[in-house]
């Protein structure tokens, strides 16, 4: 279901049973917390049974509570403030071991990303990158680290890569000034989506460039402008953006592109190894006897 969960709940409120109304009011008042509660926990919070919560989701037209929960999560993730993120994370983690909770969550995001991966879209992105005259990479705020990582390796593979620095709106457009239909622009953004990245992607699309979006959902503002979309699950670990799955997808993209340019990449790294050795780029570690 693509409709707004909260609107659906408000419209159906008069027809709900007494227990369902308790669930509905809690979700309307505290949707940021409800979105990350299990059916059992939500039921205990409002003093109804778990089965009542499951029937509530079915009453709204969902095929189960997880589907309703997913719709809530997708709706709110781009809206939560940093303070709300901290509150939600504290509620989710509770007394559990932080290290295990966060790393298990990251493992789950990689698993889901792989399960739902669109191989056709992935190959389309690889083709667009290989066919481009120039490659632009845009990523702001926490996604800037992902853009830097991708840019580092693409600069070793390709001759013309531009990593857009988004320190100001005007500078972003100035760096994209000569983008054309022969180029590809890779935009990276996850909730909360960067308006600067969205603007850059729109600018590139309007000038006919191929646009590759690396984001979390088809409903992302980046996806609607993309000629190829790469989806990776992201999450929030308190106020911190958990971007392990997007980084793994970027790794796959770099490897796929590198395999297609295998001979050129091998020659490049043969030259680099000579330079690194000559100028002592890497510390020499002696093996112990």
Task: Outline the structure in words.
This protein is of the alpha/beta class and 289 residues long. The protein has 14 helices and seven strands. It has helices at 5-12, 18-29, 31-34, 39-46, 50-59, 65-76, 82-93, 98-115, 119-131, 143-157, 169-175, 195-206, 244-260, 262-278; strands at 135-139, 161-164, 184-188, 210-215, 228-231, 235-237, 240-242. The strands form two sheets. It has a five-stranded parallel sheet, with helices on both faces. Strands 6-7 form a two-stranded antiparallel sheet. Helix 8 crosses helix 13, helix 9 crosses helix 13 (244-260) and helix 10 (143-157) packs parallel to helix 13. The radius of gyration is 23 Å and the shape is elongated. The model has no long low-confidence stretch (mean pLDDT 85).
State the gist of this model.
With 289 residues, the chain is an alpha/beta fold. It has helices at 5-12, 18-29, 31-34, 39-46, 50-59, 65-76, 82-93, 98-115, 119-131, 143-157, 169-175, 195-206, 244-260, 262-278, and strands at 135-139, 161-164, 184-188, 210-215, 228-231, 235-237, 240-242.
Strand content: 5-15%
Shape: elongated
Q: What is the topology, as strand order, of the major beta sheet?
A: 2-1-3-4-5
The total of beta strands comes to: 7
Order of helices and strands: HHHHHHHHHEHEHEHEEEEHH
Between the first and last Cα atoms, what is the distance in angstroms?
64 Å
């Amino acid at each position: 279901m693509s409709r707004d969960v909260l609107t659906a709940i408000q419209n159906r409120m008069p027809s709900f049973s007494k227990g369902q109304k308790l669930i509905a009011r809690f979700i309307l008042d505290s949707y940021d917390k409800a979105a990350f509660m299990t059916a059992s926990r939500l039921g205990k919070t409002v003093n109804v049974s778990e089965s009542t919560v499951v029937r509530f989701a079915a009453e709204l037209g969902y095929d189960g509570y997880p589907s309703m929960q997913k719709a809530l999560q997708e709706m709110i993730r781009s809206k939560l403030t940093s303070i709300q993120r901290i509150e939600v994370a504290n509620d989710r983690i509770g007394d559990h071991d932080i290290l295990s909770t966060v790393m298990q969550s990251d493992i789950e995001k990689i698993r889901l990303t792989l399960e739902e991966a669109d191989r056709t879209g992935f190959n389309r992105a690889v083709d667009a990158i290989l066919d481009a005259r120039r490659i632009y990479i845009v990523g702001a705020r926490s996604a800037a680290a992902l853009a830097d990582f991708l840019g580092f390796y693409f600069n070793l593979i390709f001759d013309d890569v531009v990593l857009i620095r988004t320190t100001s709106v005007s500078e972003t457009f100035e760096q994209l000034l000569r983008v054309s239909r022969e180029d590809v622009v890779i935009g990276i953004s996850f909730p909360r989506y960067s308006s600067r990245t969205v603007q850059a992607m729109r600018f590139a699309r309007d000038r006919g460039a191929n646009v590759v979006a690396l984001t979390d959902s088809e409903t992302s503002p980046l996806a609607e402008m993309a000629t190829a979309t790469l989806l990776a699950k992201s999450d929030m670990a308190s106020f911190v953006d958990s971007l392990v799955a997007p980084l793994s997808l970027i790794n796959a993209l770099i490897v796929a592109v590198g395999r297609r340019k295998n001979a050129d990449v091998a020659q490049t790294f043969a030259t680099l190894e000579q330079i690194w050795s000559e100028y002592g780029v890497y510390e020499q570690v002696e093996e112990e006897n």
